[in-house]
Design goal:
This protein has about 300 residues and is mostly helical. The protein contains 24 helices and no strands.
Length: about 300
């Protein structure tokens, strides 16, 4: 397959000092390579310098092949294999990487979100949901797992239980003790709950009403994003699937680290990856062609 790109003939004429008449009568059907080669053989030193510049100057390459045009970049990219295409992704602006995520459907985005490091997933979730919404949408078993985790300090739980209304504390204690706690003060209830053995304490936490459980979990985790990393990734992606559409998810993913976005875009089919790369800065693209793909440049010159 040939690389079909309409080169800037006017620029060639100016740089090689070729008249319109000669271009029309002699070079009308010639390739750029043939024009430059013929002029060089005739002693045109500008042609020699021009040939050298094409393979060394990104700025000249952008002009001669009009690489500001994405369609012209695509002509080169279609000639590359998948590994060669991947070389361009780390060179792209982050905004352009974000745009590339639009090529994935919601199901694929959710799969990739689950594969993210927990801190990256949590950052993304916070772009879509408030703390109150997260607590309301998380399955109750996730809250239970969080509150009864051996990694969670009991003192932290007790300090935040002081913020829970008395009626919920009474329900907690009654569920594990069987005692009527209607006339017991919040202070006394906290003392009784704090005195429970570890198994009873966990049972009491799990027996809390969901609304109280959500409030307690939020108060403990507030200001500590690392605590939100303890919730299961699938619980988050299921939440996203239920309440958000694909464009909202893509927009939220702007906070993901660049290297993680590159890993995601690496999963695109070859043709779509090429389209994404057409948004790369023209000069950066030209520089890569000069450094790593001189054969493609030569191929374009003979087209």
């Amino acid at each position: 397959m040939s690389i079909v790109i309409e080169s800037d003939i006017t620029l060639i004429m100016q740089r090689l000092n070729i008249s319109e008449a000669k271009m029309r009568d002699v070079y009308a059907s010639k390739s750029m390579e043939e024009i430059v080669e013929t002029e060089a053989e005739e002693g045109n030193q500008a042609a020699v310098a021009f040939a050298r510049e094409i393979f060394t100057s990104p700025r000249m390459l952008v002009k001669i092949f009009k690489l500001a045009n994405p369609e012209n970049k695509l002509e080169f990219l279609k000639e590359m294999n998948l590994d060669q295409l991947r070389e361009f992704l780390p060179l792209m602006e982050e905004e352009d990487l974000n745009e590339g995520l639009k090529f994935f459907d919601l199901t694929k985005l959710l799969d990739m979100l689950e594969e993210l490091p927990p801190d990256q997933l949590v950052k993304t979730v916070f772009q879509m949901f408030s703390e109150e919404e997260i607590m309301a949408y998380l399955p109750e078993e996730e809250l239970n797992k969080f509150l009864t985790s051996p990694d969670l300090d009991k003192t932290k739980i007790m300090n935040n239980l002081q913020l829970i209304p008395q009626e919920y504390l009474a329900q907690m204690y009654e569920a594990v003790s069987g005692e009527d706690s209607d006339k017991v003060s919040s202070k006394e209830l906290l003392e009784k709950i704090g005195g429970l053995n570890p198994l009873q304490f966990n049972d009491a936490l799990e027996a809390m009403q969901p609304v109280a459980k959500q409030k307690l979990t939020k108060e403990i985790a507030h200001g500590h994003d690392e605590m939100y990393e303890k919730f299961d990734a699938h619980a988050y992606t299921n939440m996203i699937k239920t309440y958000k559409f694909q464009p909202e998810v893509v927009k939220a993913m702007k906070v993901i680290d660049e290297d993680e976005k590159i890993k995601m875009l690496d999963k695109l089919p070859q043709d779509l990856m090429a389209i994404v790369i057409t948004q790369i800065d023209a000069k950066v693209f030209a520089d890569q062609l000069i450094k790593n793909h001189p054969k493609l440049l030569a191929k374009a010159m003979i087209a």
